[in-house]
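We treat protein structure as text, and this decision shapes the records that our systems exchange. The remainder of this section carries one protein's record, kept here as part of the documentation:
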Amino acid sequence: MKKALLVLLILSLVPLSGCRLFGKKEETSFKSMEQIYQEKGVPVKTEEVRAEDFAMVLKYSATLRARSEAVRYSRISDVVQNVYFKVGDYVRENQTVLTFPENNQTTQYHQVKAAYELAATTYKRMERMYQEGVISKQELDSARTNFEVAKANLNTTDDSIRVKAPLSGYITQLNVKPTDNVNSGAPLFTVSNLDQIEAQIWASSKEIGQIKLGQTVTAEWNGRTYQGVISQVSQIMDTGKKAFEVKALFKNPNKELTSGITADLTIETERKNQTVVIDRKNLINESGKYFVYVVEQGKAVKREVEIVEGQGVRVEVLSGLKPGDLLITEGQNMVADDIKVQIVNS
């Protein structure tokens, strides 16, 4: 009996001792990430700094408008009788686009037309009488004045009834259809000359000094790019917007651009040859100063750099980096100055 108890006691102690031995083995083989970094270095990715051609740009979003564009408003309140064109159609200047009824009470079209016809007939008769020496020059002048006034009244009334295109171009907006009731002053349609498209940009006080007449502008819309130029630069700040108005002009021979679309604009303000350029994401901003990490002799070295402020994902470095330096592009947040690093570029 005593012998059996001794065997059981020995067997019960074996797992415990095994666990302790196993635990000791794990403890001696385990290393923290800090220890691994100290031995092998913090893993980072790098790229060699190179000099390259670089363009400084400013980026904006703007609504494009036809440079020549006009809206026709209704002069009377009435029902639209006819509409002769649709959006996208080309119209010539003074071509009738839509009409209202001639019996409109406000215009009194028929009365005005009758007055014109009477004045025209009278003027022609007075011209013959003057040539025959029957009336004086003063009487002829009076008849001419009455005729010209009647003609102007008829033209004004006719323009209210038969609404015409203010310029040659394309119908880019049509706000009414036949049988619609409209009020005086309501917009009826828009005509746009799409040969040239204009973009209005609002530049800050920091940006306006970089923008000059004739600079290249690129518009991106619907997956395509279009080249234009800066056509106007205001030197007076708009007090409401606290910005300066800038206009860009684009030729549009194929009429691919239309009025009212929104495009992304890029203005090239300066181009430099063979200068040091890096991705903006590699910069570390500390209290307004910029730093980067480079690798020297297997260690991370923190350097202050001077850059040219601007927009875009790439920035020009004026000092602090030179071609050939190994710039840390991934792992900057894990290193510090004089820390051992391990380059793991694929």
Summary: The mean pLDDT is 89. The chain is about 25% helix and 40% strand.
